[in-house]
Design brief:
The protein is an alpha+beta fold. It has helices spanning 14-19, 55-97, 100-103, 112-132, 137-157, 162-175, 181-202, 211-316, 324-351, 363-373, 397-414, 469-479; strands at 6-7, 358-360, 380-384, 392-396, 421-430, 433-441, 483-489, 493-500, 505-506. The strands form two sheets. Strands 1-7-8-6-5-3 form a six-stranded mixed beta sheet, with helices on one face. Helix 2 packs antiparallel against helix 4 (112-132) and helix 2 runs parallel beside helix 5. The longest helix is centred in the middle third of the chain and has 106 residues, at 211-316. The radius of gyration is 49 Å and the shape is rod-shaped. The relative contact order is 0.09.
């Protein structure tokens, strides 16, 4: 199992990580453009991530089309309510000034009161329905029949003048606003029926321009043409509904993506803030720790010197070490003083920071030196597998030595007592290739739940561990601008890899 990789150098610092939070979010985001309002100059919509099709798309498009049609028909009902009212008033005026029977030689004209009564029948009902039940099929069919009836009445009142017939065709054209073929067909049938009745009742009033057949032909021709227009308008509305449904789906997808990205950014920001707060706390703790460790080093050195002197004098005095408890207590004092000295040394190494001092470093000789410093343990074999012919890279020798000491010591301490094992140090690289220095052991491995935290300061699973060894490794790798990674499998061992960037080298000596 792999642990999170730690990288050194400026690119790995916490402040730079904080600046990268939310990098996946875009700086600007185009707002959705309503269907039907787009032109060539507007911002193009982003490509959808996946096509949307199926029952959901059709259902949403049908819902949008129905809502649009209902809204259009309600507004059209209100328009026709005002139009019918104005036609009622105009019809009374026409009846006052003109009379069809007078134009055909009759003595008595049509009284305006008759028109008032007819207008009440033709206008009051559709106007009431437009106010009470707008947008319903009953309302628009009643409005359509009333409108064409007004056209027939005006034609009759003006004696069948050719100019008045345009009111009929205009009424049919206005009825297209309903986007309902049934309304057009019903209105056309009503026109033919009414003109036939007027022909029978008024003689030549409706037949002055060629009779019912010719008039019916033109009415039918107009209805057929307007039906085609109406169907085309409905098709266009349906396509706009589909486009709007697609647009809503894209917008919903993008909204979800923005919410996910925002939540990720917030999580990263919280994580970075926690890490920054933790780093600041550790930095303050490190400063105090370094100060305390420095102050403790001299008293500990004095205590160890005094202990060595007392032990030497007791050894020289006959019979002074016959008591086993004295020997045991002296061993305890020596062991615990050594632990305190090692702890203060590690704390100072963790807190100390100095500029890099690059110099040629023979890796095999450095590993030999590291192995001489580390206390051997029975049953654990340490192998230096660094090739002697490997070029010497220009690197800070002390930092690299610090890394190797802690990695090898950590590998040795990972083995249980009385268990045999091997720890091997390997190295490769040079030229334009990065350097890889590996410390491999066949020990018990690192548990998966522990692996992500092994580089945290003061974290340890050892009974007498300080939790600073691998933290020192991580800090030193960062100063070397190196990359430290670990692979481990429980029961089979662990491998730490320090990857250094391509460095200048000198030939091996």
């Amino acid at each position: 199992m792999d642990a999170p990789v730690l990288e050194g150098g400026p690119g790995s610092r916490e402040a730079r990580a904080a600046l990268g939070v939310g990098g996946a979010l875009r700086a600007g985001y185009p707002s959705a453009v309503p269907v039907g309002g787009c032109d060539a100059t507007e911002t193009p919509l982003p490509e959808r991530s996946a096509p949307w099709s199926g029952a959901g798309r059709e259902a949403r498009a049908a819902q949008l089309l129905t809502e649009h049609l209902v809204d259009v028909r309600r507004r059209t009902d209100r328009v026709f309510a005002w139009l019918l009212l104005s036609q009622w008033v105009s019809g009374i005026g026409v009846a006052w000034l003109f009379s069809t029977p007078a134009w055909v030689g009759r003595a008595r004209p049509v009284h305006p009161g008759v028109v008032l009564a007819l207008g009440l029948v033709l206008s009051a009902l559709p106007m009431g329905l437009s106010l009470v039940r707008p947008g319903t099929p009953l309302t628009r069919h009643v409005v359509a029949l009333s409108q064409v009836s007004w056209s027939a009445l005006l034609i009759h009142l003006t004696g069948g003048r050719i100019e008045t017939h345009f009111h009929l065709f205009g009424s049919l054209a206005f009825l297209v606003l309903y986007r309902d073929v049934g309304v057009l067909l019903g209105a056309g049938s009503g026109v033919l029926l009414e003109q036939g009745l007027l022909e029978v009742w008024g003689g030549q009033a409706a037949g002055a321009q060629g009779g019912v057949l010719e008039h019916g032909f033109w009415v039918g021709f107009t209805v057929v043409g307007l039906t085609c227009v109406c169907r085309a308008m409905v098709r266009e509305m349906r396509q706009r509904a589909v486009d709007r449904a697609d647009l809503e789906h894209i917008h919903a997808q993008e909204q979800r993506a923005r919410e996910v990205a925002l939540e990720q950014a917030r999580g990263e920001l919280r994580h970075v803030r926690e890490r920054v707060a933790r780093i600041e706390k550790l930095a303050t703790l490190g400063q105090h720790t370094a100060s305390v460790s420095h102050e403790l080093r001299n008293p500990l050195a004095a205590a160890r010197t005094a202990h060595a002197y007392v032990t030497r004098r007791l050894t020289q005095a006959p019979g002074s070490l016959d008591d086993t408890r004295v020997r045991r207590f002296l061993d305890i004092i020596d062991r615990e003083l050594a632990v305190c000295a090692r702890l203060t040394s590690e704390l100072l190494d963790c807190a100390r920071e100095r500029p890099l001092q690059l110099q040629p470093c023979q890796l095999r000789l450095l590993v030999d030196e590291v192995l001489d410093v580390i206390s051997p343990r029975e049953g654990i074999r340490i192998h230096n597998a660094v090739p002697e012919s490997l070029p010497a890279p220009l690197v800070d020798r002390e930092y690299l030595r610090q890394v190797l000491i802690n990695l090898v010591q950590n590998a040795i301490e990972a083995f249980p007592l009385h268990r045999l094992g091997d720890v091997t140090v390997l190295a490769a690289g040079g030229g334009l290739q990065p350097w890889h220095i590996r410390v491999v052991d066949n020990g018990p491995g690192i548990p998966a739940e522990v692996l992500p935290r092994i580089f945290d300061p003061l974290f340890t699973t050892k009974v007498q561990g300080t939790g600073l060894g691998l933290s020192i490794v991580a800090n030193a790798a960062q100063r070397l601008e190196a990359r430290i990674s670990v692979r481990s499998e429980e029961g089979r061992g662990t491998e730490f890899t320090l990857e250094l960037p391509p460095l200048a080298t000198v030939p091996a000596q």
